[in-house]
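Z., the sequence and structure:
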Amino acid sequence: MRLVRYGESGAEKPGLIDDENVLRDLSEEVEDIAGETLSRAGLERLRALNPKGLAKVDPSHRIGPPVGRVGNFIAVGLNYADHAKESGMDIPAEPILFNKAPSSIVGPHDDVIVPKGSDRLDWEGEIAIVIGEEALYVSEEQAMDHVAGFCLCNDVSERTFQTQRGGQWMKGKSAPSFGPLGPWLVTPDALGDPQAVDLWLDVNGERMQTGSTATMIFPITTLVSYISQFMRLMPGDVIITGTPPGVGMGMKPERYLKPGDIITLGGRGLGEQRQTVQAFAG
């Protein structure tokens, strides 16, 4: 299944994309794509529905982030060896974890806003994991039993805030609009092998990132298991898994986003995002 949330920010309704790429309404079936809906039982209930029996939705509606009420927005750093190299950092022996504020989450086509004081605004195309069942001390073999699905994320980053403002990466990762998610939450059966997803990202039509989840240092099952050793993962938690090479910070000379730039990114089976960079109005 490809699950979506559509409508104005803060008032999104649940929906799905059927096999003919038609947006269908799920609001008569579930309150939101969140919480219990993401459990194995909740997804099975949706899977049993006949999509053609659901009302069609005007495709001009805004598409929001595909999961609601995100509690924890967890990120993995330097999870591609070639990205670690371009960043001038060592390949990690264990996953590097940091947080993004859930308040940074926006829809896949919403604007990216340059925060006040920013001078090094960067892009990072990634695949995100959405948790569907509580996970604490799970093994790698059990990990996928706790995953509701996957989606795209642009891990927008302010590099000066991240690296030069006291050592906490979340400072450069959490501004409003720094977490575009979607367009869809794709269930594991619909995506296939999550370690065989090609990823790409363009800025103003110029290819910046090309990579594959096949080259992750720590694969998805390892990440879910590892993170569950330190915290209880809950339904709706989102884990973004690291970015392939090609970020602005790694270029020589470095290259960063400015108002008016257009970012597009995509991944096999995950759809595409498109954001316009806008100056902070205030």
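The mean pLDDT is 96. DSSP finds five helices and 18 strands in the chain.

Let me know what you think.
H.
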